[in-house]
Design brief:
The structure holds two protein chains of two kinds.
Chain A (H helix, E strand, L loop, with lengths): L1 E3 L9 H5 L5 E4 L2 E4 L9 H5 L5 E3 L15 E4 L2 E2 L2 E2 L1 H17 L3 E7 L6 H6 L4 E6 L8 H15 L3 E5 L2 H14 L3 E5 L1 E5 L4 E8 L4 E6 L6 E5 L16 E4 L4 H4 L3 E8 L12 E5 L9 H11 L2 E4 L1 H5 L20 E5 L5 H4 L7 E6 L6 H4 L2 E4 L2 H16 L4
Parallel strand pairs in A: 5-8, 5-10, 8-9, 9-16, 10-15, 11-15, 18-19, 18-20, 20-21, 21-22
Antiparallel strand pairs in A: 1-4, 2-3, 6-7, 12-13, 13-14
Helix pairs in contact in A: 5-6, 8-12
Chain B lengths: L1 E5 L2 E3 L5 E3 L4 E3 L5 E3 L1 H17 L2 E7 L5 H10 L3 E5 L9 H15 L4 E5 L10 H9 L3 E10 L5 E8 L2 E8 L2 E5 L11 H9 L4 E2 L19 E6 L8 E2 L4 H14 L4
Parallel strand pairs in B: 1-6, 1-8, 6-7, 7-13, 8-12, 9-12
Antiparallel strand pairs in B: 2-5, 3-4, 9-10, 10-11
The chains are: A alpha/beta, B alpha/beta.
The structure holds flavin-adenine dinucleotide and adenosine monophosphate (AMP).
The site of flavin-adenine dinucleotide has 29 residues of chain A, from helix 9, helix 10, strand 21 and helix 12.
């Protein structure tokens, strides 16, 4: 509960002003909190010049957290090797491990994956725990969760990080629940607070309008899933040494109730959306389905993913798996090119974290221009052909 | 057969406005709506009911006003609803939320299937479904984009999406499923159901009603805490590229080259 000391409150309104959630109002020169809106973030407590605000937490028994040591990375494998986020996580884990003076351990689960372990060491791991079993050839999240939770209970790492991919976001919450610990989803930044060894986990909230730093200060392990693309991988170092440990799971750990009857890798042109460096997105401004190829061609020359607004997935121009936004994918590529997209809030929340945003729209007042880095007020049908030609020329591709 | 659908009331994205200069929420006229993904969870539950016959109960943890969300679900055809509401639930993270929801679901009795949205748009965690499955001891299927009933009505065949494509999976009841908006088109409320929803008494369950351990709910039961927040600066470095289309393209390509993107 946020407590306001009415004696101390001078009604200055500073707390009302800084509250991002609209939970505080000053009435009759005294601050009042609406507990329904208050998220206990503590921003107001730090701001109050009179020290009138306080968050009352129930005293918890101090637990011995020092028994938990080491940084773990849950790797993710695919048909053609590791998911790129695995190496990004290892790069960060290496940095965290060095600052905490502990080892970095990578977990490698699957079937026939053992020879891939060396690659994890080259990318920053000190140890790799390999769980190689035919039962794990499909993504059987129940078994994955039990095995990771079992290993964590046994070895007690202080931090476990995984990719915020479809798989990571499916099974890591199950692990956290089994371990009764905190998990922060979809982080974009991780730092260490050195004396407390707390992991500072930063993630967007309210569709990126607010960034929140989350901690898990009285339980271990501290767990987070991290968005692909935001962390930097280390270059592979063939000289790095490390230990490879085999773990033989018991039949009980391997038991699972969801059977994978078929696994289909869908031909997606260019990289998958959430992992693409560049995305070219089509909106209704393309006017008709026949013009969609302009966006696809540009994406091809840029080796980019193709995104879409809901207006055109609803119209059936392209499959919904391309949809970006509140009810589609959340993306944050290096370059986002919005072609004939109005910039409805439901679209913006899925892409406004992109580094460079180019918007092409013939309406100069379109909201998409509010988030654009480069704004082009023009007809997409004029811009795209010229842009495709020029980009292909730059990159030495024949059109 | 008993089906539960978990729904959450969230601020309507369209009515939430931010003042980026002061970094605050503009609070006038913020409306609450059902989390968009949860309409698809409701539809999934009702589809299953249509095939197998079942009682569908909607459940939400939230303030008393969350009744409105339950009434809306009932107007779509959900049979019953419960609001799990208590001051003591405030400040719950996903660990405390799944604990609370699981205690409430256990109170409902034997449940065969639980549907959740893929994620709630206010927190975007996508953790409640999988966590709830562990609490209930059910298997979990995430990111459902297709669903039909197995022969004999013993379980479900689900198309589970990933970055790479999809898996077709089979699972017997009981199960927790989290659904994507690709799965279905939510039905429109009928007049009859609307009338029924309007009149319905919606039970309100407190922490003690569901026998929740006070140390596992709300702030006390939440290991994650908000340490600090900040408003990202949208740098107003927007540049309009002027001129005829050819000129605009030329300027853009120059900028992209400078940024090392070409
Ligand atoms: C609950 C809910 C969830 C939603 N989720 C999503 C989501 O996940 N993703 C999403 O994208 N939307 C979502 N929407 C829909 C969203 O509100 C918008 O309707 C949608 O994003 C609009 O798509 P658009 O920009 O392609 O079309 P429009 O809004 O129709 O915009 C077309 C734009 O193109 C411009 N234009 C027209 N002709 C040309 C031309 N020749 N050259 C250049 N520009 C031109 C116009 O000026 C206009 O700005 C959601 C809506 C709701 C209610
Ligand atoms: N307070 C709540 N009450 C009921 N269901 C919830 C609640 N919070 C989350 N859910 C369900 O869990 C899903 C995922 O939410 P989240 O993990 O918060 O992104 C939602 O789509 C809902 O189905």
């Amino acid at each position: 509960m946020l407590k306001i000391d009415i004696e101390k409150c001078i009604g200055c309104g500073e707390c009302e002003e800084v509250c991002s959630f609209g939970a505080i109002t000053v009435e009759d020169e005294k601050a009042k909190v609406d507990p329904g809106l208050c998220t206990l973030c503590g921003t107001c407590v730090d701001t109050c010049p009179e020290g009138a605000l306080e968050i009352e937490a129930e005293e918890k028994e101090a637990k011995d957290l020092s028994k938990w040591k080491g940084v773990w990375v849950v790797s993710e494998t695919r048909a053609d090797g590791f998911a790129p986020v695995t190496f990004e996580l290892l790069g960060k884990a290496r940095e965290l491990g060095d600052r905490l003076s502990v080892d970095v351990t990578a977990l490698l689960l699957g079937s026939g994956v053992k020879e891939m372990a060396q690659e994890l060491i080259q990318r920053g791991a000190d140890r790799v725990i390999v769980v190689d079993h035919p039962e794990l050839s499909d993504f059987v999240d129940e078994a994955y969760s039990k095995i990771v939770a079992h290993l964590a209970e046994k070895e007690r790492p202080e931090i476990i990080i995984a990719g915020a991919t479809a798989r990571g976001r499916a099974f890591v919450p199950q692990v956290a629940t089994m371990l009764e610990t905190g998990l922060t989803a979809d982080c974009t930044g991780l730092e260490i607070e050195e004396d407390s060894r707390n992991l500072l986990q930063t993630r967007p909230a309210f569709g990126g309008n607010l960034m929140a730093t989350i901690i898990c200060d009285d339980r271990r392990p501290q767990m987070a899933t991290v968005r692909p693309h935001v962390l930097k991988a280390m270059e592979p170092d063939k000289e790095r040494d490390g230990e490879i440990i085999d773990f033989e799971p018991s039949p009980e750990l391997l038991k699972h109730r969801v059977r994978v009857v078929e696994s289909v890798v869908e031909e997606v042109e260019g990289p998958g959306l959430t992992e693409a460096d560049i995305i070219v997105t089509a909106g209704r401004g393309l006017e008709q389905k026949e013009n969609l190829h302009l966006v696809e061609d540009l994406a091809k020359c840029l080796d980019a993913g193709v995104g879409a607004t809901r207006a055109i997935t609803d119209a059936g121009w392209i499959s919904s798996s391309h949809q970006i936004g509140q009810t589609g994918a959340t993306v944050a590529p290096k370059l986002y090119i919005a072609c004939g997209v109005s910039g409805a809030i439901q679209h913006l929340v899925g892409m406004q974290g992109s580094e460079i945003i180019v918007a092409i729209n013939k309406d100069k007042d379109a909201p998409i221009f509010d988030v654009a880095t480069y704004a082009i007020v023009a007809d997409v049908k004029d811009i795209l052909p010229a842009l495709i030609k020029k980009v292909c020329k730059e990159r030495g591709i024949d059109v | 057969m008993n089906i539960v659908v978990c729904i959450k009331q969230v601020p309507d994205a369209e009515s939430v406005k931010w003042d980026h200069k002061t970094g605050t929420l503009i609070r006038d006229g913020v409306k609450s709506v059902i989390n968009p993904f949860d309409y698809h969870a409701i539809e999934a539950a009702l589809t299953l009911k249509d095939v197998l016959g079942a009682k569908v109960t909607a459940i939400t943890m939230g303030p008393p006003q969350a009744q409105e969300a339950i009434r809306e679900a009932m107007s779509m055809g959900v049979d019953d609803g419960v609001v799990v509401s208590d001051r003591a639930f405030a400040g719950a993270d996903t660990l405390a939320t799944t604990y609370t929801l699981s205690k409430a679901i256990e109170r409902l009795g034997d449940v065969d299937a639980v549907f959740c949205g893929k994620q709630a748009i206010d927190g975007d965690t996508a953790q409640v479904g999988p966590g709830l499955a562990v609490r209930l001891g059910f298997p979990c299927v995430t990111y459902a984009a297709g669903m039909d009933v197995l022969e004999g009505g013993k379980g479900l065949r689900i198309k589970r999406m990933s970055e790479q494509g999809y898996d077709m999976v089979e699972v017997e009841f009981p199960v927790v499923v989290t659904v994507l908006s690709l799965l279905n088109v939510p039905r429109v409320p009928s007049l009859k159901n609307k009338m029924r929803a309007k009149k319905a008494e919606i039970p309100m369950w407190s922490a003690s009603d569901i026998g929740a351990d006070p140390s596992r709910i709300g702030l006390a039961g939440s290991p994650t805490k908000v340490h600090s927040t900040y408003i990202p600066k949208f740098e107003a470095k927007r540049e309009f590229l002027e001129g005829e289309p050819d000129k605009q393209v030329e300027l853009l390509v120059e900028r992209l080259k400078e940024a090392g993107l070409l």
